[in-house]
Amino acid sequence: MTRPGTASPRRLLASIHDVSPRHEPAIDRLFGELASVGVQRPALLVVPDFWREAEIRPGSPFAARLRGWAEDGVEMFLHGYSHRDEAEHASWQDRVKASRMTAGEGEFLGLDAEEAERRIRAGRSLIEDITGRPIAGFIAPAWLYGDGAHSAMKALGIPLAEDHMRVWAPDSGRIFLKSPVITWATRTRARMLSSLAVASVARTIPLPRVVRIGVHPGDVTVPATLSSIRRTVAKIARTHVPSQYRDLVGDHACVS
């Protein structure tokens, strides 16, 4: 935490998305790649039952790994419940978001408040029982939130959330950061090339005081993407201290 009266350091916040037994080898690879360029404790965005095909069970080997990471100081975020969009979207805007911004994975975009609250409550309980620690917050799959998700997060006192453009506290409405997250896409060649271009630009332009990086299991399947992640994170880590989301909150607490 920064002392009152001192400038907060330039920070790098890195996260691994879609943490699930289904993606365990890829998660290990991403951990290793990030560690090789100085990021030892990326935040983990945990999915309790990825696509309802990979349930995290208490007492399982993967649950033990989650607890071990948490004991090592890694922040655990709840990242949806199934990560799968099963809702009917009433508005054309949401239908466009659901189809264009993600491949059927915007789970919390179309949920009403009651169902969103039920899933967040169940997922939080699972992760906290496994790790013995409170979750750091909730981050919706594909960073897509509907009105029901926002209402549920506030009702449940979720301390931290993020989307493509900001990090905020749902329980109070306080905004901690406004800047885009750097991430990569591998679903189509066009998206992959676009994300590689954005990362390339990010390695050459002045960056904000706090930079967010988000990586996904699918990133390890494309050598060019994995190389881009490695080079981009290494470049940013030269000027920005690898940090945790709690550090960002602490910086704001010191200047309040």
List the topology elements.
Elements (H helix, E strand, L loop, with lengths): L10 E9 L4 H13 L6 E4 L14 H11 L4 E3 L13 H9 L12 H19 L5 E2 L8 H9 L5 E2 L3 E3 L6 E4 L2 E3 L5 H14 L7 E6 L7 H15 L3 E3 L1 H11 L1
Parallel strand pairs: 1-2, 1-9, 1-10, 2-3, 3-4, 8-9
Antiparallel strand pairs: 5-6, 6-7
* Count of β-strands: 10
Q: Topology as H/E string? A: EHEHEHHEHEEEEHEHEH
Helix content: 25-40%
Query: Please, how many helices?
Result: 8
**Poorly predicted parts:** 91-102
Terminal-residue CA separation: 13 Å
Major sheet size, sense and barrel closure = 7 strands, parallel
Helix-strand makeup class: alpha/beta
Give me the Rg, rounded.
17 Å
Mean pLDDT: 91
* Coarse morphology: globular
Strand content: 15-25%
Keyword list:
globular; 39% helix; 256 residues; 10 strands; alpha/beta
Summary of the model, kept short:
The protein is of the alpha/beta class. It is built from eight helices and ten strands.
Provide a descriptive summary of the structure in words.
- Helix content is 39%, strand content 15%.
- It is of the alpha/beta class.
- It starts with 10 loop residues before the first strand and ends with a helix.
- Residues 91-102 have low confidence and may be disordered.
